[in-house]
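agent: user wants the full assembly modeled, not chains individually. Plan: 1) parse entity lines 2) check alphabet per entity 3) run joint structure prediction 4) return tokens. Steps 1-2 passed, two entities, 666 residues total. Proceeding.
--- entities ---
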Amino acid sequence: MKLNNQILLGNLVLSAVVFVVSGIGMYYLVFSTVYDELDNHLLQHKTDIMNQVQSDPASLNAIRELGGLGSYEWVEIERIDGQIDETENSYASIDTTRYEYQDTPEAYRRLSTQISVNDTTYSLKIYEEVAAWENISMTILLSVVAGLLIWILLLYLLNQVAFERILKPFYNTVDTLETISKPSDFDEKFPGSKTHEINVLNQALNIMMQQISSTFEEQKKFIQNASHELLTPLSIIRQKAEKILSNSDQLDEDTVKAASDIQHTAVRLSRLSNSLLLISRVENRQFNLDEDVRISSVMSEVLDEMKDFIDMKNIHVSTNETSDFVVRGNKELIQSAVYNIMQNAVKFTPENSGIKIEIGGESGQKELKIIDEGPGISAELRDSLFDRFKKSNGHSNKLGQNNGNGLGLSIVKSICKLHQFEYSVKNRKGSGTEVTIRF
Amino acid sequence: MRALIVEDEPLLNEELQEQLLDEQFNVDCTTTLREAKDMVAADEYDLVLLDLGLPDGNGLELLKMIKKLYDETAVVILTAHGEVDEKVEGLEMGSDDYLAKPFAMSELRARIHAVMRRRFKISDNEIYAGKLTLNLNHMEVTSGGKQLDLTETEYKILRYLALNKNKTITRIALAEHIWGSKIDDRFSFDFINSHMKNLRKKLSEAGISELISTIYGVGYKLTTNEA
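--- prediction returned ---
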């Protein structure tokens, strides 16, 4: 969730709680105020009646008749027999209908008490309608709710306008960070800002990115220089050896053999260093990964490159293409990975046998399978297969003895890792090896 | 023909010089970018062998300068960087070819031959090897007016040997020429042998035997009696 929306949500929850609590509080406050006021009113009424009756006992009947007429406020006076010890006031809220024709009962407040006039005791009941007061409290409640809604709307607008504006530099920074895929992409600096925290953040990021970028550049330069410094002398060794070999007629066999070994070793060393440099370049992410690569066309290019070897070993290559798909990455590297797998397949498959290539997969997965009919891979080697310098003879790299430099599959591994492809190898039942890349 | 060699490694520079002298070039050499710029500014060269990683700068600068001054000059980039980007950049900027170190001298010779042919539109697109005539435009090999039926790989082998005639070509150099340097040696040697067997058979069927001799444990040599 975006930061500003989180703040908004927090604000909303908090203000809803505050409004609900204060709304309920206000409701009860208003309610009790209203009833206090009513009760006071009733008590005042009673006092008025008592004063009147005290000064003129004869007016009791008139009060009873006149007081009985009001519709919002009326008086019931009845004579009761017997003595009462003391006069007491009791209040009650009642729902009743004042007249027969009323459909719904209304709320009234009633004061019941007793009065004595000329030693006769009367019960006095004074009624007053509550409805008007309830309307007021409902209005208050409604206005509280309305206030809450308006407040939420204001908060939302505040979030949209003010927060967006305040947080804009922050979001700019986040967006920029998101688009940087490699340090060399980073040429524009994060700008300064009026907001202290963002300023600090951007400055820290600038320093960090600069350091990463320069380390990256240094590393890249180092790799380039290392390859240059290694390969140029190797070039000389090779050419000197070849120069000796080009006049081989005049040389004895031992010298030719020695010169030939020197040449082989120089070539081997240069390939080894090229492979290591490729791996380290891949691992240091020095490649663009934004090409659209069609796997079927990569495969056919690789097959074309290997055509001579496939024909010579009389290998039957069958391609089963269930779906044609495009993946994002570096074409050169993907081709190199496919080439390495294919080269192994061709190398280990016996003559006159077949290699199966499956492009696609069940349920439209982006998958490439290369299945050979070679001897397969022994169990103890399978785990370390993609590690550097491991070979199926179980020994580490021996210069001059074995063909490959044992780096083929670790090149595949680093390329797959860079592209976040999955790769796996398993033995087929019977014979053969199945290599799968899942794009 | 005048050639300039720009390579900072003296031993390699020397070796290149020897090769180009062999090819009848008039050769100048330098090990620095600064000197190379002076030389290019002063003279027009037909061929420049250019190392990109020079101690005082990137060779691409010189390439830019050459292309600005003389469009006709053929430039072959020699580099150890193995940088695909740089290779593409170099070719886009107008270099004629690109050789990754370490390369075989026979490969350089073949490349120079191709580059010069392309640059200067040499109408004579045939090379001769004994009784054989190789037409480079049509990838045809004829012997006494009769065309030989060769596969593409066999043609490539024959062309490579013919371009380097009377010189021993190692199997590594031959394999690299045909399949590039990605291929495993031992793996490819078998293929070279069997291609060579087929090629020899076809040549002897056409009445040409002993044109290509095997130098045991080293490679092959196409020998002609011509100079």
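agent: reporting back. Chain B touches chain A at residues 9, 11-12, 15, 53, 79-84, 101-106, 153, 167-168, 170, 172-173, 178-188, 190-191, 194-195, 215-219 (CB under 8 Å). The longest strand of chain B covers residues 74-79.
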